[in-house]
Amino acid sequence: MAVINVSAGSEAVLKLGDAAANATPTSSDGITVPAMQDITINNSTGVFRWKQLDLTSESAVTTPSTNQITMNIVVDPTTFFGTGAGSIDNVKDNGLYGVSRSKTKVYFSAFFDGTDTGSKYVTGEGYISGLAPTVNMDAPVWVTPVTIEVDGDFSAVTTVS
Amino acid sequence: MAFRDTLITNLTTSLSGSNVSVSTELPWNSSGTPLYINNKKKLYIDEDNIAKTELIPVLDNNDVFQTETTVQAFVTVDAKTQPDDIDTIVSTILAGKDGITGQTIKECEVNTEIETDYITYTFDYRFVTV
Lengths: 161, 130
Prior knowledge:
Structural class of chain A: mainly beta
CATH topology of chain A: Elongation Factor Tu (Ef-tu), domain 3
Order of helices and strands of chain B: HEEEHEEEHEE
Number of strands of chain A: 8
Radius of gyration of chain B: 17 Å
Mean pLDDT of chain A: 94
CATH class of chain A: Mainly Beta
CATH architecture of chain B: 2-Layer Sandwich
CATH architecture of chain A: Beta Barrel
Low-confidence stretches of chain A: none
CATH topology of chain B: STM4215-like
Oligomer: heterodimer
């Protein structure tokens, strides 16, 4: 039995790009989402249940999964609003807010134990949603929830050199 | 500039003309007795106490920290015959917190303690920033 301990600070990593190639472990074309407070990868299988008179328990069949990645982050101006222009990646240029507003598809890699060779991660594509930046005087730093509404399946991948 | 220095500068100005003056000395003990008890009607301001605590832990270790600075000030007056303007003096010292800029939280509370024939006002300033 092993655990994946992320306390080193470079283990739980989320990379985003406007193409799958820009969100790979070795690419620097996309963005690495900084200052994540938490991240949750939701793979929720849908279920249809029914009862029938000749059975004492419900029956069930699966329906398509709802896949999401949710997180809370501290707002970093560069990654939230983008660098403006000049890179080859739309997510880097326009930031999380820009691609959410324009409803642009993003590609992601969510790393469980860093980006080194042999580390595990899931990839996919989806849309940024659920931005709700908030701040108050007791915690005077902007934070926001972020949701990636995944389009299709996750893929589980192992990093290769 | 330490908050103590700013408080001394500001309160020296705002308390001028009152029955209390501001000392630049720390409230050290002389023969076992704090200076503010030996020297009545003088406000002594202690050094800054600073604590950096984690406000928001994040997964990439770029945690957000807040800095809390507390400063204590003391003034002792005769308990039997307090200065006529003691209420104004207390209000002025409490308002001294407003002279510290760049803080998200600026608080000050005062507590009193009577011993024999004198009363000591202890002011606790608290400032928080990120």
